[in-house]
Amino acid sequence: MSERRGYLDRGFGETRAVVTLNGRPERMLFARVGETSGPRPGARYVARVRKVEPAFASAFLDLGADGEGLLGFKPEHRPIQGQALEVEIKAAARQDKLATLRVIGPAEGEPRRLADAPDIVDQLSAYVDGEALSEGRTARDMADEAQAEILQTVHPLPGGGSLAIEPTRALVAVDVDLGNRGGQDAKRITRQANMVALTETARLLRLKSLGGLVVIDLVGRGHDGTALLNAARTAFAPDNPGVAIGPVGRFGTMEITVPRRDRPSRELLMDARGQISDLTLALDLIRRLESEARSQPGARLLVRCSQGVASAAGPAAERLAAQIGHRFEIIAEPGRDREQGQISIR
Hints:
The chain is α+β, with helices and mostly antiparallel strands. The chain is built from seven helices and 18 strands. The protein folds into four domains: about 5-35 and about 130-145, no CATH class; about 45-115, CATH 2.40.50.140; about 150-265, Aminopeptidase (3-Layer(aba) Sandwich); about 275-345, Hypothetical Protein Ychn, Chain: A (3-Layer(aba) Sandwich).
């Protein structure tokens, strides 16, 4: 039987929430102080139809101060330019894609937000059916583990082998590798590896907040298509409604579409160059500084880091100082590696 638990790591500048499935991270949510990432799933708006594109069965809607959203429609429900509608955010914006909307009904007045999206605590509680949440050191360790797994591309499979997950503009490519998975019955080994890979793919896609078209390159030949299809249905059941699973193709691949709902986690954690962002590194450094300060009460601490990380750490450092006092100093050192922040006793 599947067991889900919730972990809430409250930090200075960032709160992180993790849902685990049988002890492994399955979902991760972030709330960064002062960072706006556009309309969030569940938020409701009065929106005005700015432009209708019949050829694409889509319309651009003005959300007011929160920008625009995209509404798909059926021909019989085509909106009218200038019309006011009450809408809910169905999926968050990502890279250069607008947030997608669903219509609740007609509305009046200027474009504006009517209701905020559920906050991070409410979202986490909903995923674990209101069960008690773990906080403190246990939650921080789990959040660190989940975040590290999000940033990985290649993931080990239980029992041997590996799984590589690489998102592109068109699709998410998943490669299953048998690696050093042991055993003498090759057909049985490949079947087990593919079954495990489907379960792990579903978990990791939820953890990384990835969706859309997913193409899984299975290992071996002569696949048991029915068994794999049933395994995929079970693995991706938590992503319904909206999951569609195709049969194993002639080239040994399985195609699955998974609804996109939230912004991919890597977009939040990384910068436009595909590197871990200064802010992500800064928040990690502040968490380390907090732990060091609490383990050594009264000690004066010195933090050495790159200029970009030091600048990004400023707001969170002020919040930490308000809690533990001004007994640390952050020094920006020219030429220091961005990922090599150092904490020492002064």
